[in-house]
Design brief:
- With about 280 residues, the protein is α/β, with parallel strands linked by helices.
- The chain is built from 7 helices and 13 strands.
- The protein is about 30% helix and about 30% strand.
- The mean pLDDT is about 95.
- The strands form 2 sheets. The protein has a 9-stranded mixed β-sheet with strand order 5-4-1-8-9-10-11-12-13, with helices on both faces. The chain has a 4-stranded mixed β-sheet with strand order 3-2-6-7.
- Helix 1 packs across helix 5.
- About 50% of the residues are buried.
Length: about 280
């Protein structure tokens, strides 16, 4: 059986991560942090997540031309992701500044760099089973990704005040859901440690809770969830089962440090659900 094919249209960043005992308050300095530099960006994270979970993945995005951007591309290639749709920009690439506390909570600020220059004409789609996009790229590029997609998933993060299109699947956390407002289509609402809810027309179709884990870093948990849910749905899993599988993928990612280094393989997700 052929693996499902997914195109991810989105951001690729270098993540500058400082792990500290607690997150600082406004105006406060917190010391004794541990610093790492890892490939990230919601789009690249979701591409790696989908590849590790068993899909054939193509990534479409825009990166800079510096050594950090080369690290981002190498990470995608190492996972078998097709980067033929990536445009190398002469300007700066995307950078995410991430603080993570001892309990796994984080705060993130993104300087989009080349991601903000992704244009509709850069978005070259094939005849894949699904297309996933996020909102760390311009709205015009997202609209181009949605056109002609067999199954289009929008992860509406970071949130924008108005939903410009009607995806087949909208993935949001509770804060993004409040900003986006009611959506009549299929919505996956993530609730952190409480799990997730699948809604359609405001009616709850399924609920799932994640397996118990020790939270280490929630940076890419939502990306693992999103990729897993899309993959599960397009391969015909029942919706409740798909939601449970996605919650387990997100929980595994939250139990490990880093963005892309934390993303699980399909066998790991299956194993934790059998415990």
């Amino acid at each position: 059986m052929l693996s499902p094919r997914i195109t991810v249209v989105g951001s690729a960043n270098i993540d500058l991560v400082a792990r500290c005992e607690r997150l600082p308050q406004a105006g406060e300095t917190v010391g004794d942090a541990v610093f790492t530099r890892v490939p990230g960006g919601k789009g690249a994270n979701q591409a790696v997540a989908a590849a590790r979970l068993g899909a054939q993945v193509r990534f479409v995005g825009r990166v800079g031309s510096g050594p950090d951007d080369d690290l981002v591309l190498r990470s995608l290639k190492q996972e078998g992701v097709d980067v033929g749709g990536v445009v190398v920009d002469e300007g700066e690439g995307g950078v995410a500044l991430i603080l993570v506390d001892a309990g796994g909570e984080n705060v993130i600020v993104v300087a989009p760099g080349a991601n903000a220059r992704l244009a509709p004409e850069d978005v070259d789609l094939g005849d894949d089973d699904a297309v996933i996009a996020q909102q760390e790229i311009p709205a015009e590029a997202i609209a181009a990704a949605a056109r002609g997609a067999r199954f289009f998933c929008l992860n509406a993060a970071p949130a924008r005040a108005r939903l410009e299109l009607e995806p087949d699947l909208l993935v949001v956390n509770r804060y993004e859901y409040e900003r986006v407002g009611p959506y009549a289509g299929l919505v996956a609402l993530t609730l952190g440690a409480e799990g997730a809810v699948l809604l359609e027309g405001g009616t709850v179709l399924a609920r799932a809770t994640p397996p118990p884990i020790e939270a280490v870093d929630g940076t890419a948990a939502g990306d693992a969830f999103c990729a897993a849910l899309v993959l599960a749905l397009i391969t015909g899993r029942e919706r409740g089962e798909a939601l449970r599988w996605a919650c387990a993928a997100g929980a595994l990612a939250a139990s490990r440090p880093g963005a892309q280094p934390s993303l699980p393989a399909a066998a790991e997700v299956d194993a934790i659900l059998k415990r």
